[in-house]
Amino acid sequence: MKDLGMNKTQFGLLASLFSLGYALMQVPSGFLAEKFGPRKMLTIALVWWSAFTILTGVVKNHGMLYAVRFLFGVGEAPMYPSNAVFNSFWFGKGEKGRASSMLLAGSYFGPVIAPVITIAIVTAFGWEAVFYIFGFIGFVIAILWAVIAKDLPEQHKMVNEAEKRFIMENRDVVSTEKSVAPWNIFLKRGGFYAIAAQYFVVQFVIGLFLIWLPTYLTEQHGVKLEDLGFVAGAPWFVMFILIILGGIISDKILQQGTSKFMARGVIAIFGFVVFCISLIFALKTDDLYVNVFWLSLCLGGIGMSMGMSWAAATDLGRNFAGTVSGWMNLWGNIGALLSPLLAGFLADRIGWTMTLQLIIIPVVFAIIMWFFVKPDKPLTKS
């Protein structure tokens, strides 16, 4: 912000344009993952977003930087829909909660270590170097994924026959034949809209924290740059732990023969309730470390809700998990698009405390939406 002369609104717009490109490509990404397979789509995505990570450090013109961030979002879009397709074919019915949660936990372990690593790189080499180094690592991961991954366990030489048989007998798909998602059926199902609506709120909240948490801690609690690594990373670590824990508990509940609403919906609702209560306590304290403790529980709660969203999307979509999860993530990223911009605008005018208190309203709405998701009723029979 300082180097490029950006105010909070302009900086928030950078995040929003990324989310716009990401959101617009969610449904197409789900379709493409179902058509061409997650291995190919994720390889393309990894290469694309690594290139645009590097370009983020190169470009200094505001207009060009906005374009780079938009295209960055376009390239990263296949990530989650492709993984939803991957999980549908590689994991059994009683394993999808853990599979979805491990993917998300990996994604959100990044912000645990990123503040420490980023600040060290910025201090040693300047902020541009962060994007060069992270982009290079992305290219390495793309090569590893392309070499190791396969679309189906039946195609993988490292999967033994007993494991293949177990997966094929227990996964929640009808066939591995490629077909086109029945949108005419989806658009008549209330659960299709409900899962998207609640996920809009999930990503609205996460987008706000991801972009503004370091700024909030600096402005509200006077945290210095050199001390920011731990306090900014701690909430994401708690989120990482609770995402995994939520997935484990969800699958345990499901394996005991209870409904998917109990296994997915109740845990998601519990996560939202934890978020609301923790946020109230966080805003009532002036002590930095007490504040970070409650903010950590905030993100942990919303993380549990997010993990259950992806598990429920595969439950609803089955063979068309890519399309359903892409639809859900489209609306989630519209939420992520709006929240950094709206939060920056409001924080400039009414302050951080009032801005954060207002988040409770959409979270209550998300709780209500879970009663309409109905993960026990797949959107189609295939």
Automatic annotation (TrEMBL):
Keyword line: Membrane, Transmembrane, Transmembrane helix, Transport
Question: So which domain of life are we looking at?
Answer: Bacteria
Q: Where is the Major facilitator superfamily (MFS) profile domain?
A: 1-378
Q: Show the PANTHER family listed in the entry.
A: FI19708P1-RELATED, SOLUTE CARRIER FAMILY 17
Q: How does it sit in the membrane?
A: Multi-pass membrane protein
Output this protein's name. MFS transporter
Q: Which Gene3D superfamilies match?
A: MFS general substrate transporter like domains
Q: Where in the cell is it found?
A: Cell membrane
Q: What PROSITE patterns is this protein classified in?
A: MFS
Q: Which residues cross the membrane?
A: 41-59, 103-123, 129-148, 192-213, 228-249, 261-282, 288-312, 324-346, 352-373
Give the organism the record lists: Staphylococcus arlettae
